[in-house]
Amino acid sequence: MEFDCGFVKENKWFRYRAGAIIIEDGYVLFVGNERDNYLYSVGGAVHIGESAEDAIKREVFEETGAHYEIDRIAFIHENFFKGSESLDGFDCHEISIYFLMKPNGTRNLSCNSVTQTGEREKLHWIPVDKLGEYKAFPTFLKDKINSIGTEIEHIITREQ
Questions:
Q1: Looking at the DSSP assignment, which residues form a beta bridge with residue 80?
Q2: Nearest by Cα to 155 from 5, 146, 141
Q3: Structure pTM?
Q4: Per-residue pLDDT tens for 73-115?
Q5: For the chain, what are the domain ranges?
């Protein structure tokens, strides 16, 4: 049995997450599901005993059916937000390591994954220059997507 790196204490929820930034031909990949009215980055919880690198490779394959190689770590993101839907009422604190993935030359991917609560997920390729027009998380990407540097950037957001 796999256990995620996270815990709940009273009305507080913490999670350690790995996220992927996948860009192909001017489009960036996000995921959506049948329940939520927003999109989110490819990725998910790091399992106890699993490296963030291994977690993102596993998550990318689970969500896209494709093997991507890691280019480099781009961002460390501390996100504080109010939980919605399955985390309703929780004060959430998530630490994510975002990996820039090497392009593999195709946007023809197939998603066969479901959320932890069983909703089917669907892939969404968003034009990089129109990312600000979508309700997509993490929100900092709309400002950073065109200027991802070679240094790791630490970002803190409060999406209350």
A1: 93, 158
A2: 141
A3: 0.92
A4: 999 999 998 876 556 678 999 999 999 999 999 998 888 787 7
A5: 6-159
Q: Quick one: 41 exposed, middle or buried, by C-beta within 10 A (0-12, 13-18, 19+)? A: buried
CA distance linking residue 85 with residue 21, whole number of Å: 25
pLDDT of 78 reads 97
Per residue, what are the HEC states of 70-93?
EEEEEEEEEEEEECCHHHCCCEEE
d(CA 96, CA 75): 8
Tell me the per-residue pLDDT of 5-51, one tens digit each, with 9 for 90 and over.
Answer: 999 999 999 999 999 999 999 999 999 998 888 999 999 999 999 99
- Which residues pair with residue 7 across a beta bridge? 14
Report how far residue 47's alpha carbon sits from residue 3's, in angstroms, rounded to the nearest whole number: 5
Q: Is the dihedral of CA 32, 122, 50, 56 positive or negative?
A: negative
Candidates 1.20.120.740, 3.90.79.10, 3.40.50.1970, 3.90.180.10; CATH matching 6-159: 3.90.79.10
